[in-house]
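FIELD: query
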Amino acid sequence: MAFTTDDRDDFDISRREVLLRRIGHELLLQSGDSTSRVLPLKKIAENEYQIRFEKELTFQTDSLVNTTQRLLAKDILTNDYVVNVLNCSNSSVAYGYAISKNKKDDIVACLGRKQPKACYMINIKFKSKAILTAKNGYLLGSLPLLAFIGFIFFRTRKKKETLPDVASTSTFTLGSVVFDSKNKKLMMNEKTIDLTGTETRLLLIFAQSPNETIERSRLQKELWEDEGVVVGRSLDMFISKLRKKLELDPTIKIVVVRAKGYKLEISS
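FIELD: result
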């Protein structure tokens, strides 16, 4: 049982590393870069990793916070973590924040600010978590004791795994436009535009994966089929309406990807 737990821990850690690379990938896309590489992940301490990039990038503080929260909510080992964005030239901190399982303990500031294009490294430090594995080196004196501890461990792990994902934030920064999905609004400077329920659900799909192609079949399924409604409405019509409302910022466009679907393009 102890060795089985050890294997599971290694798997979860490997999965966490894939999620960290995904964070780097999405930040490049949000910066308008779909070709350069996320460099190999660097483990700089037992519970701390560094994400590095091949080229310079820019980022919105809101988008960085939203992306890390959304992706790391999928990591069952993660409750609390600190993110620091460092300048490559002198390792000074350009931006940082802390996320906690208890939301009232979150420390997030300076939202809504676009950082200048530069070489950045992102350090993510996780709060250490006591895990009982064969690596611990403790001498378990008897088989009954090992069986009892294994039973308690796996029962606790199972409960944790069945907890629902932490709900991601309802506010997204798209270029210079703020999208409030909870209140169905687009805001830029002093101007506010209301969205319908369908427009909100449609834009939410795009906002969660900016600069990525979303298949037409997925949009139709998530907008209507999942609700058990026969699709009698036109997806193109809602795309057209949403395009007009996004004209607040000319750097944001919903473009057609031929024979595939649509993409929310955000130019840097």
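FIELD: remark
The first strand starts at residue 42 and ends at 45.
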